[in-house]
Amino acid sequence: MGAKPIHERAGANVQIYSAAGNTMYYLTAFPNASAWGRYRDTPNPEFNQYMQGLGAQNNGNLGAVVVERTTLNAF
């Protein structure tokens, strides 16, 4: 949930869904391919710092994290 405002500040429309109680879907959407390209090509130090903080000592147990990336294009 902490990544949501970071990605929104970077221009993404973020929606979060859950299914079966233990699966989370994190959807980023953009108004057009150009906006998506800028988002993908622009480094985001704030997000990188956030992700590094998740792995910091004494930050709790994250358990298993599975990441799948799917790009859907709708025109």
Structural descriptors:
two-stranded antiparallel sheet, 75 residues, single chain, alpha+beta
Can you characterise this structure?
- This protein has 75 residues and is α+β, with helices and mostly antiparallel strands.
- It has one domain (1-75).
- Helix content is 35%, strand content 19%.
- The protein has helices spanning 3-9, 33-41, 45-54, and strands at 13-19, 23-29.
- Strands 1-2 form a two-stranded antiparallel sheet.
- The model has no long low-confidence stretch (mean pLDDT 82).
Concise summary:
The chain has 75 residues and is α+β, with helices and mostly antiparallel strands. The protein has helices at residues 3-9, 33-41, 45-54; strands at residues 13-19, 23-29. It is globular and about 40 Å long.
Q: Please state roughly what percent of the residues sit in beta strands, choosing from under 5%, 5-15%, 15-25%, 25-35%, 35-45% or over 45%.
A: 15-25%
Low-confidence stretches: none
Shape: globular
Number of helices: 3
Total count of domains: 1
- SSE arrangement, N to C: HEEHH
Question: Pairing-aware structural class of the strands and helices?
Answer: alpha+beta
The separation of the N and C termini measures 29 Å
The pLDDT mean sits at 82
Oligomer: single chain
> What topology, given as strand order, has the largest sheet?
1-2
Largest sheet: 2 strands, antiparallel
Helix amount: 25-40%
Cα Rg = 14 Å
Q: How many beta strands in the DSSP annotation?
A: 2
